[in-house]
Amino acid sequence: MERGNYTLLTEFILTGIPYPLKLRTFLFVFFLLIYILTQLGNLLILLTVWADPQLHARPMYIFLGILSIIDMGISSIIVPRLMMTFTLGIKPIPFGGCVAQLYFYHFLGSTQCFLYTLMAYDRYLAICRPLHYPVLMTTKLSFLLVAGAWVAGSFHGALQAILTFRLPYCGSNEVDYFFCDIPAVLRLACADTTINELVTFVDIGVVVASCFSLILLSYVQIIQAILRIRTADGRRRAFSTCGAHITVVTVYYVPCAFIYLQPETNSPLGGAAALFPTAITPFLNPLIYTLRNQEVKLALKRMIQGSRNKSKV
């Protein structure tokens, strides 16, 4: 496609992450296992929440089920394409495929960010205002909040995709990254990217900072409320319901802040940091929520025992 004196790109080549050639097969198998276990683990969480009547009517576990869907989506968008970089030959991604990958990654990623905030607010109401919790956080309201998170995430993803691909791209088509993300793609633009970089910094910075601030504020109130609980068992149970959420929020926000809010976008550590929100965190979330959450573990036991009893009949 011609425009002016240069040819616009119709496809991109993802260079992937740097690795020794002798580790090619190992890395392919490693990320294949990560992908399979991510899908199975999150599917197990989703089925457990759906099948257990004590969980699927509670807002906290509605949010957890939605989180599993998002994790499965992010993993499916990124990891299979990452695995292709460990195979022989050059496998370009079409221009439209690159647009779709960037859109859906930021759509699901920002929705996840909003969802973590909703989960923190839910824990705040449950622990700090337990008597009013059934009135303040109903099942209907939780679904409305989730719908709002999806809409806001979709708008954020569309904004980033439109701003990124409104620019002309020509010359080299090698994206020095393992997926089509904003900083890596903008380096190939044949136009000034200052406005894009500023809008990306401000937009993602506002989303991350506002969500993280609300989560932090919620947990300051939660910790104060937990410390006022007189019994050690009560404090332990309260902390156990929040421990998993605090862990996944930390694993999610620290790499994201490192990738998008640092002044130098071409840092060699950026690719390693990006593996956390795209591949590692979706894999770890089911493990964290099953190991740190007593109610999920009990629901899993009930589901397993129920299936065993049905098989005996």
Write the layout of secondary structure elements.
Blueprint: E1 2-3, E2 6-7, E3 11-14, H1 24-51, H2 59-84, E4 93-94, H3 95-128, H4 133-136, H5 139-165, E5 174-175, H6 182-186, H7 194-227, H8 232-260, H9 269-292, H10 294-312
Parallel strand pairs: 3-5
Antiparallel strand pairs: 1-2, 3-4
Structural notes for this entry:
With 313 residues, the chain is mainly α. It has helices at 24-51, 59-84, 95-128, 133-136, 139-165, 182-186, 194-227, 232-260, 269-292, 294-312; strands at 2-3, 6-7, 11-14, 93-94, 174-175. The strands form two sheets. A three-stranded mixed sheet has the order 4-3-5. A hairpin with a 2-residue loop joins strand 1 (2-3) and strand 2. Helix 3 (95-128) packs parallel to helix 7 (194-227) and helix 7 (194-227) packs antiparallel against helix 8. The longest helix has 34 residues, at 95-128.
Question: What is this entry, summarized?
Answer:
The chain is mainly alpha-helical and 313 residues long. It has helices spanning 24-51, 59-84, 95-128, 133-136, 139-165, 182-186, 194-227, 232-260, 269-292, 294-312, and strands spanning 2-3, 6-7, 11-14, 93-94, 174-175. The chain has a three-stranded mixed β-sheet with strand order 4-3-5. It has a two-stranded antiparallel ribbon with strand order 1-2.
